[in-house]
Amino acid sequence: MSEHIRTHLEGGVLTVVFDRADKKNAITQAMYAALADATEQAKADDAVRVILFRSEGDSFSAGNDIADFIALGQTPGDLVEMGVFRFLKALADLDKPAVAAVRGRAVGIGLTLLLHCDMVVVAEDALLSVPFVNLALAPEAASSLLLPRVLGHQRAFELFALGEAIDGRTALAWGLANRAVPADQVEATAVDLAAKLAARAPNSIRKTKALMRDAEALWAVMQLEAQAFGAQMRSPEAMEAFMAFSQKRAPDFSKLG
Ligand code: COA
């Protein structure tokens, strides 16, 4: 378990809270393990009808913890064996509705997680980005399939390659979210939607979700992405990007071939 992931079950809604506000809810390996546990529980436990992801502090999530990237980059082994991939597999396999409440920054997996949520509420001024190329990495969480599917190739490519953020209003206009509301209404709107979903016929809603997506295909893409991601994570260009973040400077890729 991780002290930075809290869960509680009420009214059929399993709420999963990112609780590492001082680090903008950057996600560590221990947090991924706790997220995987919660998502697996959501599927297995008949008392859970809906899973709701929300966060403490001013950011939904700053994505993968970059200190963890540095440590993992120096650790041999298959990326698919790591906590993050147990979480991703659980997301791919989840056949119950998932809802997200997004305020502030949603970076990396903070955005790609939303592609696995069925209803997404964003703050109008939220900032969403997938700066994998800025970190010399590669897309994950089946986002190489799902983001172009939602946005079209050019918009998705620009988000991946330039790493710039879009705001919540744009996320709504581009089909990444169901609602964009003022920041102070995000949680209440998401809780309300989760309660509505929890009251629907459970088998009907599961079958509806299952028919709308192909869990095996998603997992196959995630595994393919893991190869590119793992190779990049251990590359000199990624190490330069991680060190640049730690040293609060811009990366310099000019001397890397
Ligand atoms: N991994 C580890 N630590 C992180 C982090 C991450 N992904 N994101 C933020 N933090 C830490 C910062 O290092 C800082 O720690 P410190 O107080 O000990 O110096 C603290 O969280 C606050 O972050 P800060 O950068 O000062 O906040 P900000 O409001 O100026 O910027 C972000 C917020 C999210 C825009 C910025 O932190 C950022 O770009 N983070 C990296 C996002 C990223 O690239 N994630 C990986 C995606 S694959």
Automatic annotation (TrEMBL):
EC annotation from Swiss-Prot or TrEMBL: 4.1.3.36
SUPFAM superfamilies per the record?
ClpP/crotonase
Q: Where in the cell is it found?
A: Peroxisome
**Which InterPro entries does the record cross-reference, listed alphabetically?**
ClpP/crotonase-like_dom_sf, ECH/Chromodomain_protein, Enoyl-CoA_hydra/iso
Which stretches are annotated as coiled coil? none
Specify whether Isomerase is a keyword of the entry: yes
Q: List UniProt keywords, sorted A-Z.
A: Isomerase, Lyase, Peroxisome
MF terms (GO), sorted A to Z: 1,4-dihydroxy-2-naphthoyl-CoA synthase activity; delta(3)-delta(2)-enoyl-CoA isomerase activity
Q: What is this protein called?
A: 1,4-Dihydroxy-2-naphthoyl-CoA synthase
Native source species: Brevundimonas vancanneytii
- From which lineage does this chain's organism come? Bacteria, Pseudomonadati, Pseudomonadota, Alphaproteobacteria, Caulobacterales
